[in-house]
Amino acid sequence: MAFFEGSKMTAGYGDGPDIISSCTINVDKGEIVAILGPNGAGKSTAMKTMLGLLNLKSGSVLIDGEDITNLSPQDRVKRGISFVPQSKNVFAELTVKENLEVGAFLRNDNLDKILNDIYDLFPILKDKQSQIVGELSGGQRQQVALGRALMIKPSVLMLDEPTAGVSPIVMDELFEHIIKVKETNVAIIMVEQNAKQALSVSDRGYVLVTGQNKFEGSGNELLNDPEVRRSFLGA
């Protein structure tokens, strides 16, 4: 059994139609798993369902063997699940350090040690710790968002389009930072539109089509699958 798993999930918004249907996503510690697919495929919906922002119509969500299907998003965060949304993921009017401190709201141990751990992962944040986040570049703001999510020392990190709107050079830098986070034994799930680049840094991936699992495999397997390449990688 994987460390974190959404199994056979069916869910939608309100009384509307199902967006995902019998969809399964799982990830182990120290692993990056990418969720890919066309627009409207249910990628973000699957992630939000695992976080508890949407109620399941059927299926289950487990972490470390514990069924958390009925837990609130807040209680899932207390179980070690952290989430970085695509937009509005920083407090632009606060400093870098203040943003990080906000992320530590669940912790009551040594904040300085946690901050130093984040600064080790993201050295630019140490250099910019007193700067207002709204003055930073897009890539630097994303590092703030990642750092803040890591302040609770999560076992699972969920990223919704972490490289949206940044240049190719910044995208490569962000993926390098995500790999560093993985190496701290965190389980990482990311929804990503830049499919080739995401698969190149991912241990495994899922391709969703109309809310269902269409393909899955290692990053290399999906990169080299002729149908995946033709349909989703522009090759």
Structure description:
This protein has 235 residues and is of the alpha/beta class. The chain has a domain at 1-80 and 157-166 and 191-235: 3-Layer(aba) Sandwich (Rossmann fold). 37% of the residues lie in helices and 25% in strands. It is built from ten helices and ten strands. The chain has helices at residues 43-51, 73-78, 96-103, 111-121, 123-127, 138-150, 168-182, 195-201, 219-224, 226-232; strands at 4-12, 18-27, 32-36, 58-63, 66-67, 81-84, 156-160, 187-191, 204-209, 212-218. A six-stranded mixed β-sheet has the order 6-7-8-3-9-10, with helices on both faces. Strands 2-1-4-5 form a four-stranded antiparallel β-sheet. Helix 7 (168-182) links the parallel strand 7 and strand 8 (187-191). Helix 3 packs parallel to helix 6. The longest helix has 15 residues, at 168-182. The protein is globular and about 45 Å long. The mean pLDDT is 92.
The secondary structure category is alpha/beta
Morphology call: globular
CATH fold descriptor of the domain at 1-80 and 157-166 and 191-235: Rossmann fold
The second-level CATH architecture of the domain at 1-80 and 157-166 and 191-235 is 3-Layer(aba) Sandwich
Strand order of the largest sheet: 6-7-8-3-9-10
- The H-and-E topology, N to C, reads as EEEHEEHEHHHHEHEHEEHH
Query: In angstroms, what is the radius of gyration?
Result: 17 Å
How far apart the termini lie comes to: 34 Å
